[in-house]
Prior knowledge:
This protein has one domain. It is 81% helix and 0% strand. α1 runs antiparallel to α2. It is mostly helical. The protein contains 3 helices and no strands.
Amino acid sequence: MGEYMPADEELRQIARKTAEEKAGFYTHLGIYIAVNLFLIAIWWITGGPGTFPWFVFILFGWGIGIAGHYVGVFHGKAYVEQMTEREYQRMKREREE
């Protein structure tokens, strides 16, 4: 059996959704960098080296979210596609029974 090939308009919609997801990730990353630089500057101004670097909690905690967002946008598609195909095949078999 051959794989389903979406029509041109459907491909355009998929491409747009993918581009929006990537743009969302890059926006999230930019905000993460800007906010954390701001927090590091506050730490530096209010004591800096020699004081506890409290900003690391935010940096690492939010960093986990950034990593998850990256995986979801850039590596999650293949997993979703595999699950979709398995589910499609299961439903198709059930319909034939």
